[in-house]
Prior knowledge:
The complex is a heterodimer.
Chain A: H1 7-22, H2 27-55, E1 63-73, E2 76-84, H3 86-109, H4 116-135, H5 139-157, H6 164-195, H7 200-212, H8 221-237, H9 246-249, H10 255-264, H11 269-276, H12 278-282, H13 285-307, H14 312-332, H15 336-363, H16 381-395, H17 401-414, H18 420-449, H19 457-462, H20 468-483, H21 491-496, H22 503-522, H23 530-557, H24 562-569, H25 571-578, H26 583-630, H27 638-658
Antiparallel strand pairs in A: 1-2
Chain B: H1 4-24, H2 28-52, H3 57-87
Amino acid sequence: MENYLFLIPLFPLVGFLINGLLGQRIGKGGVFFTACSAIGFAFVIALLSVVELVGRAPEERQLVQVIWNWIAVGNFHVELGFMVDQLSAVMILIVTGISFLIHIYSVGYMHDDPSYWRYFAYLNMFVFFMCLLVLGKNYLVMFVGWEGVGLASYLLIGFWYEGDANADAGKKAFIVNRIGDFGFVLGMFVMFMTFGSLDYHEVFHKANEMFHQGLIGINTPALVAMCLLLFVGATGKSAQIPLYVWLPDAMAGPTPVSALIHAATMVTAGVYMVARSNILYTLAPTALLVVSLIAVATALMAATIGILQNDIKKVLAYSTVSQLGYMFVGVGVTAYWAGIFHLMTHAFFKACLFLCSGSVIHAMSGDQDMRHMGGLAKKMPITYVTMLIATLAIAGLPPFAAFFSKDEILWKAFCFPYYPVMGKIIWFIGTLAAGITAFYMFRLIFMTFHGEFRGTEEQAHHVHESPVSMTFPLVVLAFLSLTGGWLGIPHLISEKIGHVPNVLETFLEPVFEHSQAIVAHTAVIPEYSHAVEWTLMGSSVLVGVIGICLAYFIYMVHGKDLPAKLAKTYRLHYDLIYNKYYVDEIYYVMVVLPIYHFSVFLWKVIDAFFIDGVGVNGAGWLVRRSSAGLRYIQNGYLQTYGAYMCLGVVVILWFFLGAH
Amino acid sequence: MATLNYYIVLASILFGLGAIGFLTRRNALILFMSVELMLNSVNMMLVAFSHFRAEMAGQVMVLFIYAVAAAEVAVGLAILIVLFRNVKSVNINKFNVLKW
């Protein structure tokens, strides 16, 4: 399979070209078939590669294909090459698998859209770049994919570009991501200066060697700078404080896009990047602390904003920001595999939640406001059940997926080896945010599916279950949301239920073994008794249950008046959270306005006055004026020219003969 | 005994006459003749130098120049005739169709 890795990105690329160039000619069926089969084939090739990978001995598990030598300048070499190791194996299966399901879903969802072919072309292009991102064997190929998915995201957020708000949301996403990408590029520069390469294998090998030879220590400034700069890129792409503001607005795109790009795959690219660079981060604990603190702050802040959102997709968007925070906590406390584990389970349940919300929006004729919904459970049973499963998963109740992944992250945060005290704080905030998550997710369920229908007559008449092409992916993803967590059952539980192996951790271990060795070498890993671990596990389930009960109490038992009463009592807090802590407004005043005024200054004074006025028009004026004088010399009389010639000869003669 | 200076002075006078004629007259044919006058004054100089330096190359070169000048005169006169046909004049101030 090693020589066929290039097919994984190639199929979506071909799909993109066919749909983009010929989409209008080959008809709806042709577009649907091309788009879905391109991703289907990519998934099959990915699956075959991973099967071969698993078939090998654990230490030989790496498939590498170099397509060509891309850049060779002096001692700087970059190959266009693909690599599948354990980490990218997990990623590529998530990416192609979920993309395939969402393509199928989109066939139903986008069936009546006039520019369906453009949609599927963009979607295929996204998968192509995402494959580059996770399969690249060096940072530059990853960066190409990183930029490419940003482009696809921009195009798809602004897919319905007739609406100004949609186009603005696309621009916002693109510009905010540019800020992050600038950090990423600088990080690559520092990396090249330090290690002289961008290739994963070379960089990590060298970092490990240099550490063991004592050439670089823990927290070497170059490494900390490198990791922080790369993390700036991750905050943009993966929506962390301070660059998370684009993600909620990105919900302007079609819902399957939100599910695929802004929940399951693209936004997790930052987590993948940190997990990929695990050795570098392990050698820079300061950067790790920054990562995990920002992450847990994001998790809490986004969760609180989620409580009061009324747009069903906005709730899910803030929950995505919050869950991404958990993933970064995982990779930030050196539990890299736990971050990837949560990335995987999150891809399942969040894709499911978004697709369910798409199904609801479809049934509500495009209305996204939960205040108009209610009592949809009876009319849309499949959507209801699948969404309930996914919600139970995100709430962290056993035996659903996120119980295992979130719990692992919180437990690992509790035993943060580098900063034990900070670890406890992170654990506490994380657990609190988990409770809030359960609360707002069940608020969503209760407001949407229970109680009385609050929409118009027309909407009530229209509500229906979605077609099979839409419900099929829901069922698959709900199944995965239930069972996905069983790939990583913690030691503690597997002891009780008969030694079920922790498949994912064992599988991913070789990728992180050097990091774990460095951690063991430089820090004391805190040891806690099983009783502590059980208590922590119990407490995170308990806050989840409390959150659910609270949501039930407020929105079901006293649904009519209690929320309004609470809002009135806690006016200040309510306003603060309802307006998302005024972050957008603060950014507007602190960042956008100064840049705007500076740009106006550059435009009016520097460009219009100095460059256009003095520079360009001034040069023209000077030439016109001087030539107006000089034109009298060229009068068209042959003999005048002859006289000039004679004069010239006289001057030359005088110069050569008379000057002496 | 005529020295080199006589020849130089004579050639310069001829050249000066040619140049003045070229710059002051309006008749294209006269201009043409003035140009020839200047050319031949230079030829004369070549012959003179050649003679006084006792070297034949200059005189041979003058013969070549005559050959080229004859060809050039043929072309020049032909152009003049064509011009005359078009403008019915040899006054160079009338040749102004390309002037701005």
